[in-house]
Amino acid sequence: MLLLYKDPPKKLDYIPEMRKALAGETCPMCGGQDPVTLDHFLPRATHTEFALLSYNLVPACACNSRRGRVVADEAQGLRLLHPYYDVCLNQPLFTCDFNPADHVPTFETRLLLAEDDPHYANVGFHIQSVVLKTNIRTFLAKRWQKLREFPDDMLFGNRSHRESVARFQAYLIGLSTSKSRVEGPNAWETVFFRSIAEESVASWIFNNT
């Protein structure tokens, strides 16, 4: 089986083209950008029989290597989410809470699913095992810094939505919804706009920028 990697058959010629086509897309595993690798969801080192199975090859970015061979926590009955099978990935799964008044805010993830949702535990495991092993917190911190420095560039047209905090928050929610349609419900950019649309953050932006 492993010999196939050294001299791949012709039927696998589509893979390089598929990688190119994924440039600029959102990573379905972590929400980052450019998922230009095809990750073995079940690691080929431990599941060689599935190494070339198409449903075991999922687009991924650098999170591919950062999660290592983690697939599940059998002791707790938890597993990663699979982009092809877990439809819950098509809905907003989490946001990030932070104190906008902090000079260097700390971003803490908060699941948006109800605790009795059947996907709740696996979503939490996936975020801890994949998403938070990426640079998402650095990404959010940089986006927040840019918003503080250049609010009118980051929030185009926001001045016409400042009649009240409620109107301004509705504007931010609209931006988050637009980002979700374009980038995906759990793309980092979407998570950022979802996070700043929270009432406390929206109020801070309204009063301080």
Description:
The protein has 209 residues and is an alpha+beta fold. Helices cover 37% and strands 10% of the residues. It folds into two domains: 2-79, no CATH class; 90-208, no CATH class. The chain contains eight helices and six strands. The strands form three sheets. The chain has a two-stranded antiparallel ribbon with strand order 1-2. A hairpin with a 4-residue loop joins strand 3 and strand 4. Helix 6 (165-183) crosses helix 8.
Oligomer: single chain
Q: Give, in order, the helices and strands.
A: HEEHEEEEHHHHHH
- How much strand? 5-15%
Major sheet size, sense and barrel closure: 2 strands, antiparallel
Ends distance: 59 Å
Outline:
The chain is of the alpha+beta class. The chain has 8 helices and 6 strands, in the order H-E-E-H-E-E-E-E-H-H-H-H-H-H. It is about 35% helix and about 10% strand.
Q: What tags apply to this protein structure?
A:
2 domains, two-stranded antiparallel ribbon, alpha+beta, two-stranded antiparallel sheet, 209 residues, 10% strand, 8 helices, disordered N terminus
SSE inventory with pairings:
Elements: H1 14-21, E1 37-40, E2 57-60, H2 63-66, E3 72-73, E4 78-79, E5 94-97, E6 108-111, H3 120-129, H4 136-149, H5 151-154, H6 165-183, H7 188-196, H8 199-208
Antiparallel strand pairs: 1-2, 3-4, 5-6
Helix pairs in contact: 4-7, 6-7, 6-8
